[in-house]
Amino acid sequence: QWGAVQEVIGSTESSCVLLSAFTWKGFAGDTSERFREALPDGCDLLLLSGEPDRINETGFAKRTEEYGRALSEHGAPAGVRIETTKRASHAKFAISDSGMLWIGSCNLLSAAPGSWVLESGLVFRDPVISRAVIDHVLEDGWLSEGGEAHLRAMRDSLPERPPSQPDKKAMGGIASAASRLRGMLGGGGFDPNEA
Fold this sequence. Notes:
6 strands; 6 helices; 16% strand; 6-stranded mixed β-sheet; alpha/beta
């Protein structure tokens, strides 16, 4: 699932958000490396941990702060910051301001590298769906003022509709050109009159 999430993060133009239910500082090094690989220079990534302190379970907020320090110690990009949600959340998603969204089952901020646990997720390239998820989070009051401001700015910068898909005729032309190119390259010689 990390590959899909890195694709979403990599599509960021200015800001993105990632929500995971739990954190585990022992795996912060792997996470920092993934953020360095995926997050474009100068972009912001808000990490949300869905584990605020609860009546019978204190110390979650402290664990999230420790995770944030561990990310920094392992060289996470400067634009990465972390906070806990105001309410406990088991949701997992990543959204970029390009309109890409991953939603799935993997607790990304606590997942062991190379874990054998099967996870699932979906990637959408649709700002309408991304906007709906952001609106849900904002309407239900999951976040701090700073977190809400981050998501509002992302929502306001989302494209109005998904990028257009090439029509069938254009795809047929691309396939034909690719087939001719393969033939020329595999045929032993290149004849510029065939190009």
